[in-house]
From TrEMBL:
It comes from the Bacteria. Its EC number is 7.6.2.9. InterPro entries: AAA+_ATPase, ABC_transporter-like_ATP-bd, ABC_transporter-like_CS, ABC_transporter_ATP-bind, P-loop_NTPase. Keywords: ATP-binding, Nucleotide-binding, Transport. One of its GO terms (molecular function) is ATP binding. Residues 27-258 form the ABC transporter domain. This is ABC-type quaternary amine transporter. PANTHER family: ALIPHATIC SULFONATES IMPORT ATP-BINDING PROTEIN SSUB (PTHR42788:SF13), TAURINE IMPORT ATP-BINDING PROTEIN-RELATED (PTHR42788).
Amino acid sequence: MRWFKKKEKELPPRERHIEANLANSTVYVKGLYKEYPGKKGAVTAMKDVEINVLENDFVCIVGPSGCGKSTLLRMVAGLEEASGGRIVIEDNDIIGPGEDRGMVFQSYTLFPWMTVEENIKFGLKLKKMPEGEQEKIADKYLKTIKLEKFRNRYPGELSGGMKQRVAIARALANSPRVLLMDEPFSALDPQTKADMQLLMRQIWQEEKPTVLFVTHDIEEAVFLSNKIYVLTSRPGRVKREVPVLLPYHRELELKDTEAFIRLRKEVNGYIEHEKFA
Ligand SMILES: Nc1ncnc2c1ncn2[C@@H]1O[C@H](COP(=O)(O)OP(=O)(O)OP(=O)(O)O)[C@@H](O)[C@H]1O
């Protein structure tokens, strides 16, 4: 039993609410505040953000440009410091980057001098995992991303979509507690982007990684996730938490259904309203 369960009754109501969420969450963000120095004093980028990502959730963050989506993800990744509030991964307040979090960015971040297979094994090598185990994990993820035939190729020989598939495999190979994805498909052409969305959803259906995914593409958010947080324009706060009540097994045809279009329009409406608020 976790310590706070024993202590729960001793806590004041507000703290009890925080501790109850912590008990169920993989990522729990509470009262998050971020300011940047500006010419005329500090600029508040984000205020009192609360986000709750449960184990095996696929959560998307959307919002108007500049609302702080990437900043939020970078803070959860430990790449940027918060000005206030808490970010807890399981029971630990984060204080910097860690191997409990895997990251996939918009820009391609593979090591160009390593083959596809070496890129996937990179984190495992750092952990000094025995070669046989590394091999097994690399084989598994090469299959997941459908690039078995490309294991000995270098990133320079791959298309943009293939590079992102390798980046996803590399992140998953380390078995992170949460996969953090920042607009990973936004540089791809529309057809490749749709293919990547489908692959990502299939990976999630099969493996159930816990995912926190930032995108400005509402259709993408509705297709991929089981919960969407819509942020307000700056300073970013949570405007809405939208459950995505669509079928579990998803194919691209889902995007043409009435239920999907209705939800996409609903989320779009929240963001449009923000732009003119
Ligand atoms: N290093 C920085 N110094 C000053 N201001 C910053 C810095 N980084 C971000 N900001 C500001 O913080 C706000 C949030 O930026 P962020 O890039 O997180 O937004 P976003 O929602 O991801 O935007 P977009 O959808 O356009 O990518 C913006 O107003 C941005 O100008």
